[in-house]
From TrEMBL:
InterPro entries: ANXUR1/2-like (IPR045272), Malectin-like_Carb-bd_dom (IPR024788)
A single cellular component GO annotation: membrane
Principal place of residence: membrane
Record PANTHER family: OS03G0124300 PROTEIN-RELATED, RECEPTOR-LIKE KINASE
Gene3D superfamilies found in the cross-reference section: Galactose-binding lectin, Transferase(Phosphotransferase) domain 1
Protein name: Malectin-like domain-containing protein
Location(s), subcellular: Membrane
Domain of life: Eukaryota
Pfam families, A to Z: Malectin_like
Keyword vocabulary terms for this entry: ATP-binding, Glycoprotein, Kinase, Nucleotide-binding, Serine/threonine-protein kinase, Transferase
Residues annotated as domain Malectin-like: 20-391
Organism: Escallonia herrerae
Membrane topology: Single-pass type I membrane protein
Length: 560
């Protein structure tokens, strides 16, 4: 009996969670769990100082969480929460709902957070982060009206305590609405992971020495999965539509059949709900099935990332029916990817991890899936069920200070987003309609020559020819790109706005200069047109009322 009692006590200690309702001595029931006030007696939590208990009667978010977000602890000096812990892995979630209290304007708050000496965030301004995310999702076509912020971290504890420290920026203050610490009993991460662009090599994550931040967690092709639907670790899985470059590239599919995990060790990796839905290219109207399904994500530059992709073959019951390629950060992460083979059958939940190192000037991470036509499989298709992106700490630091500028309105003020690619097939759709300018960055409006754009698009179109013999050589591509640059520079010298037919003729001497250099044969190859194309002429009127020559007419003009 004594031995049994000891075992029970040990297991209770290992599985103990902390759910803290900050800024109050009252406990509340939210999402089926009891959240204890941080100043309530007997809560097994120690505060280094009292802080300021703040309260609001107004909450604009999900009413389910209203009891949790109407209070907060405000601090003007460094403040520690100390929890009794044991060796092992934990999820830490920090909950924030910004509201002003007394003489504390929440828009002026700024603070850092550390856990057991590992820096999680620095100069955090919650209202700015919420406004920025809403603006980003709205710019992608979403209808985002977030009012709360949750930051999630994964870390390993060596010792008997978890110390969470909040440090306000000098002259400012900080706040926190709720704290959630969940033990992770099963292994979520392995140390050896495929490296993107590593030619099959693997990299060691050294999880025990790192802290990991969840940047994105998506349920691809399905609805939002709430914490009470992920009973093990209480995670939230967002819908993916707001992150897709072109939602039409992947149709939603689902399967209510009995889905099981490919490995018995994966039960905590994701709930089975994630694997019941997916996006597939099988029913989309794309050009010859060479179009990629693409998602793009804002990330912090200069960090290492773990990208986890979730798969489950919901349609085919045999191998070699769906083979595709995976592209991460504009690099091939995997080819000849057959979910049926890797998972060991149909309706088998499976995941694959990839390690990627982002340079200091990349703030946008692209995930793309497209058919691998070289494999000779029966179907040219791709499939994805779920996606997670984790940021890995460097030298004990996860903090990245972002300047969001003035977020008083929903309009994005930051213009440093880098587009790695947009998918050549998508661009060619607009090129064939002679409307490529439709998908250009609005910030470039009035800053480019229509003629240089048309020539650039013609080069790209030739590069995508189905037959290799029809594609230009790299030397030819370089030559024509240099020509496009000269066209643009000449346009700028002509007061940067003369798009008239006469202006086009003035630029003809650039073409003649290149022909004198002995490259007219290359020009002839790239300017070859079908009879239908040569007859098509597109005209439009620019702002000054001058007629702008169309794509085909321009090609004939500069080739005279």
């Amino acid at each position: 009996m004594v031995i049994a009692f000891i075992l029970v006590r040990i297991e209770e200690a290992e599985t103990k969670s902390f759910l803290i309702n900050c800024g109050t001595n009252s406990s509340v029931n939210v999402d089926g769990r009891r959240w204890v006030g941080d100043t309530a007696p007997g809560n097994n939590v120690t505060l280094s100082s009292e802080g300021i208990e703040a309260y609001t009667a107004s909450f604009t978010g999900d009413s389910l969480y209203a009891p949790l977000y109407t209070t907060a602890l405000v601090f003007t000096d460094s403040l520690n929460y100390t929890f009794e812990g044991t060796n092992g892995s934990y999820f830490l979630r920090l909950h924030f709902y910004p509201f002003s209290f007394e003489n504390h304007n929440v828009n002026d708050s700024s603070f850092a957070v550390e856990v057991n000496g590992l820096k999680l965030v620095s100069e955090c301004n919650v209202p700015n982060e919420i406004a920025h995310k809403n603006s980003y999702l709205q710019s992608s076509g979403g209808n985002s009206s977030l009012s709360t912020l949750v930051k999630e971290f994964f870390f390993y504890v060596e010792g008997d305590a978890i110390v969470l420290e909040f440090v306000p920026t000098k002259g400012s203050f900080g706040f926190v609405s709720a704290i959630e610490i969940i033990p992770v009993m099963n292994k979520l991460f392995v140390d050896s992971v495929h490296k993107v662009g590593g030619n099959g090599a693997s990299s060691s994550l050294n999880v025990g020495k790192r802290v990991i931040q969840t940047m994105y967690r998506l349920n691809i092709g399905g609805p939002t999965i709430r914490p009470n639907q992920d009973s093990d670790l209480r995670r939230t899985w967002e819908m993916d539509s707001s992150y897709m470059v072109n939602a039409d590239a992947g149709s939603e599919i689902s399967n209510n059949a009995n889905i099981t995990y490919a490995s018995p060790n994966d039960t905590s990796v994701a709930p089975l709900l994630v694997y019941r839905t997916a996006r597939s290219m099988s029913n989309t109207e794309v050009m010859e099935k060479r179009f990629n399904m693409s998602w793009k994500f804002e990330v912090d530059p200069g960090f290492d990332y773990l990208i986890r992709l979730h798969f489950c073959e919901l349609v085919f019951d045999m191998a070699n029916q769906r083979n595709f390629r995976i592209y991460i950060d504009n690099q091939t992460a995997a080819d000849n990817f057959d979910v049926f083979v890797r998972a060991g059958g149909m309706n088998k939940a499976y995941h694959q991890d990839y390690f990627d190192v982002l340079s200091s000037n990349i703030k946008m991470l692209w995930i793309q899936l497209g058919p691998d036509t070289a494999t000779g499989s029966a179907g040219t298709d791709a499939l994805l069920n779920g996606l997670e992106i984790f940021k890995l700490s460097k030298n004990g630091n996860l903090a990245y200070v972002e300047n969001y500028g003035n977020q008083g309105s929903s309009k994005r003020s930051r213009t440093s987003t880098i587009w790695v690619s947009i998918g050549a097939e998508w661009a060619m759709r607009w090129q064939k309609q002679r409307s490529l300018e439709t998908i250009l960055d609005p910030n470039l409006d009035g800053k480019y020559s229509l003629e240089s754009l048309v020539r650039f698009a013609e080069i790209a179109e030739k590069c995508l020819a189905d037959e290799g013999k029809s594609r230009p050589t790299m030397g030819e591509v370089l030559w024509h790109l240099e020509y496009v640059l000269q066209v643009q520079e000449a346009w700028l010298r002509l007061d940067g706005g003369d798009e008239s037919f006469a202006g086009s003729r003035l630029l003809r001497n650039l073409e003649e200069m290149h022909e004198d250099a002995g490259v007219d044969d290359k020009q002839d190859n790239l300017d070859a047109k079908t009879e239908d194309d040569s007859e098509a002429t597109v005209r439009e009127t620019n702002r000054s009322g001058a007629v702008v020559v169309g794509a085909d007419e321009f090609s004939q003009l500069v080739s005279q």
